[in-house]
Specification:
The protein is an alpha/beta fold. The chain folds into 2 domains: 318 residues, ABC transporter type 1, transmembrane domain (ABC transporter transmembrane region fold), CATH 1.20.1560; 219 residues, 3-Layer(aba) Sandwich (Rossmann fold). It contains 19 helices and 10 strands. The strands form 2 sheets. The protein has a 6-stranded mixed beta sheet, sandwiched between helices. α6 packs antiparallel against α12. It is elongated.
């Protein structure tokens, strides 16, 4: 348990050091909080003097101390207002920056790793785990403020009554042990909940995307039963976590009750013997409550660290992808010239399960040519395109682009010159124009011209807002062929040096296929075009066909239609 706490504290400290925040603003927040806190600690002493004034029938003492209490309250209100406004703005900025950082890190995850990661976990990373840093900062501020409150309260209590202070302090080790035990149990429950909640979000995502298939196979009832079972299980974890916190609280209350009872008996004895006034007893009790709440925050710190450590570990896993990506890119080179030639030497690729897909492949692709790659489903056609698009990095052999090793080329630089159209035909919930440009600066005239060539312009113009029409989730208001043509337009409009087309004609009717093949012939004059296809595509110019069999390209045909 102690070793785990040390690891969590180390992670806690390391994460705090990595936070990039405005130190001046944070210093002002600290100063206003400390000032407000110190002013708040004056009031119990003033109130105790008022009680003594009432007992002694001293109106002057009562008036002076009442005025001082009002002044302290007024200043405290102003300081608290300033502090809370600054703190909420500060933590909000930190949250936003952290969410953006996590979102950016997710986009840096290597393709092979992204396929294995639970997508629900990534959503949780952005929504919940990313707030851990603002909570971390708030907790650290609270620790400092509570330390000051506890120290000041301790010395004032010691001044009022050393023996009552000693009894109060002796309860701290007991409460600390209770919170350490409960904190460790809470951490285990929190890990269990987060992992199951990740899977639950993925389950919801799959249900929404697979809604049509659930209806087709009458699987709604069974899916609903799984949903109910999962939700009940998640709630049961939280209930068990609450029970741990509840029993921990009950134990602390029992310890506090026994300590308070002993303090009351001793206080009565001291008052009866003239060693303690009623006003000072009132003040002592107020300081004792402040001391206990501050000290309890320290004993609860273990629970907070345990819960925070879960989020910190999860969030650091994602942030590390960005760090690794930036580290790799700093060593990579840019492609400054257009791509003339791609050479593959002894390329072999196996999955993480050691299933060999490609073996000792040697190929060459040159500008102004069309290459068709054929092979059975699962033979490795898409894998080859993923490697050339730098989505898969773990392979043996070499790939040279203009005599530069693919491994050493910056990803962003490569993808400015290599465009990859996948079988997925994914469209975003953006306008048609934005889906084609995808955040690139492309003239509208170019977009319109390519859409006319792809026979989709008239369809777009028939929509309510034409090119500004917002596409529904993943383009579900368009046909498969229309979505595919928009994705082709997205690729062609930027005029890259290399086109990687993966089964791009699979959802397009024969009339439109002919026009698309003509466009491919045209763009191939100034580029390298690679297509994977099961179909016999009828080009009017010579093309080069590679047949993939037994993990290697065994046949090459040059022909015209």
């Amino acid at each position: 348990m102690i070793d785990d706490l040390k690891k969590d504290l180390l992670l806690f400290y390391k994460s705090m050091r990595e936070l990039n925040f405005n130190k001046i603003k944070l210093s002002i927040i600290f100063i206003t909080m400390i000032a407000s806190n110190i002013l708040g600690l004056i009031n119990p002493l003033l109130f105790g003097k008022i009680i003594n004034g009432i007992v002694n029938k001293s109106m002057d003492s009562i008036k002076i101390n009442l005025l001082l209490m009002c002044l302290v309250l007024f200043i405290s209100i102003i300081l608290n207002y300033i502090n809370n406004i600054m703190l909420i703005k500060f933590t909000t900025d930190l949250d936003v920056n952290m969410k953006v950082n996590v979102f950016n890190s997710i986009l840096k995850i290597p393709y092979s790793d992204f396929l294995k990661i639970d997508k629900g976990k990534l959503i949780n990373n952005i929504e919940d785990d990313s707030t851990v840093f603002s909570n971390l900062l708030s907790n650290n501020i609270s620790v400092v403020i509570n330390t000051i409150s506890m120290v000041i309260s301790f010395f004032i209590m010691l001044y009022i009554s050393p023996i009552l202070t000693l009894i109060l302090v002796l309860t701290l080790p007991i409460t600390a042990i209770i919170y350490m035990i409960s904190g460790n149990k809470i951490k285990l429950k929190e890990i269990e909940y987060r992992n199951n909640h990740d899977s639950f979000l993925s389950f919801l995502n799959e249900t929404i995307y697979g809604w049509k298939f659930l209806k087709l196979f009458n699987a709604e009832k069974e899916r609903c039963n799984i949903f109910k079972k999962t939700v009940n299980y998640l709630y049961s974890i939280k209930i068990n976590e609450f029970k741990i916190q509840l029993w921990s609280g009950i134990s602390i209350n029992i310890v506090s009750f026994l300590a308070n009872t002993l303090n009351i008996l001793i206080s009565v004895y001291l008052i009866f013997n003239g060693k303690l006034s009623l006003g000072m007893l009132t003040a002592f009790n107020s300081y004792a409550e402040t001391f206990k709440s501050s000290s309890l925050s320290f004993t609860q710190l273990n629970s907070i660290i345990q819960e925070t450590a879960v989020s910190l570990t999860r969030i650091n896993e994602v942030l590390n992808y960005k760090k690794k990506s930036e580290s790799k890119n700093s060593l990579c080179q840019n492609l400054d010239n257009s791509i003339q030639r791609i050479e593959i030497k002894d390329l072999s690729y196996s999955t993480l399960d050691n299933i060999e897909i490609l073996k000792n492949i040697n190929l060459e692709f040159k500008k102004s040519n069309i290459y068709i790659i054929k092979g059975e489903s699962g033979s490795g056609k898409t894998t080859l395109l993923n490697i050339l698009g730098k989505f898969l990095d773990i392979y043996t052999g070499d790939i040279l682009i203009n005599d530069f090793y693919l491994r050493n080329i910056d990803r962003k630089s490569l993808r400015n010159r290599v465009n990859y159209i996948t079988q997925d035909n994914f469209l975003f919930s953006l306008s048609i124009k934005e889906n084609i440009t995808l955040y690139r600066d492309i003239p509208f005239e170019s977009i319109e011209n390519i859409c006319k060539r792809l026979n989709i312009h008239d369809t777009i113009m028939s929509l309510p807002n034409e090119y500004e029409t917002i596409i529904n989730k993943n383009g579900n208001d368009l046909s498969g062929g229309e979505k595919q043509r928009l994705c082709i337009a997205r690729s062609i409009v930027s005029k890259p040096d290399v086109y990687l087309f993966d089964e791009i004609t699979s959802a397009i009717d024969k009339n439109n296929i002919e026009e698309i093949l003509k466009i491919i012939e045209e763009i191939s004059k100034d580029s390298i075009v690679l297509l994977t296809s099961h179909e016999d595509l009828k080009f009017s110019i010579p093309v080069i066909e590679y047949h993939l069999r037994d993990k290697d390209f065994t046949k090459q045909i040059v022909h015209t239609s």
